[in-house]
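Morning!

This is the sequence you dropped in the shared folder:
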Amino acid sequence: MALRSLSLLVLVGVALRESCLGASSHSLKYFSTVISEPSQGLPHFVSLGYVDGQVFVHYDSNSRRMEPRVSWMEKVGKEDPQYWDWNTKAARGNQEEFRGNLETLRLRYNQSEGLHTLQLMYGCELQADGSKRGFMQYGYDGRTFLVFDKETLTWVAPQPQAQITQRKWDADPGYNQRHKTYLEEICIEWLERYLSYGKETLLRTEPPEVTMSSRMEVEDGMEMHVCRMHGFYPREIEASWMRDGEVWLQDTRRGSVAPNADGTFHSWFSIWIDPKERGRYRCHVEHDGLPEPLDVALKEPKSNLGPMIGRVVAGLVLLGVIVGIWFVKRRHGVLKEKPLGQGTLKKMR
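The structure's back. Tokens below.
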């Protein structure tokens, strides 16, 4: 169960990273969770920091230290020797606050002791057009508990049990204003600072390798074509099927953008078409790493008839060889039938 709770944090983090829209946008986001009854050596409290979807700092209640997760963060300690000590102290304070809040919510929901989780997710995004976005929200036991509306400087409480905290925090305008200032100013400043530290990694561009595969359905004669994009960075990519030069959405499926082990990304999307219209379609891809958009033509599916016939012929030849060997051995008395021994067959009852 504890593993499921930590997995939930990761899934929420992935979903929030998916919200980063537009080419060359950048984000700084933090995800923290506390678990009431961890098991299998899992820590009570974990806090992760992400820049552009990459974990760059990590803290947990076992190590009790904020630590770097990327090599370029070593520059921070050189420029600001107090950085790691200060952030470690802040994370320890958050850990104690989380544990107290978790107990408060358990009592507020009138729940018995057991597995419960409290999560905090917040951060900011800098879009390619210069616009800025920020968010902050709490979750309890996998459901949204409180969401900060920085435009109205108020908290939204989806559940009745959250309204007590909502009224308390909204009664302190200064508290909410500090959150707004952080999300719109301080967070963006730190994001730009981290981007400067990791520019060789975070600001690089890797063009996608685009490949096409296809197959024909024998039953209805339709063709499925898959356009695959691999090894690109940053993660933002525009890909679509074009029919006669126009975007075509009918009979299409799209996979999510997923990370590779080397920090790049991959994705795919497919389409079903009438083979008579194959020449009308193109896989259209746009990415920062490409000097110009790519338009890849569809391939003619390879027929399965040839390999199938080959396999049948090979099978018949092999069968003929086996039968021939059997007759030869039979003729020379190599094969001798042995009678069934006593007790080999079971009685029928």
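Headline: Residues 1-23, 304-310, 332-349 have pLDDT under 50 and may be disordered.

More detail when I'm at my desk.
O.
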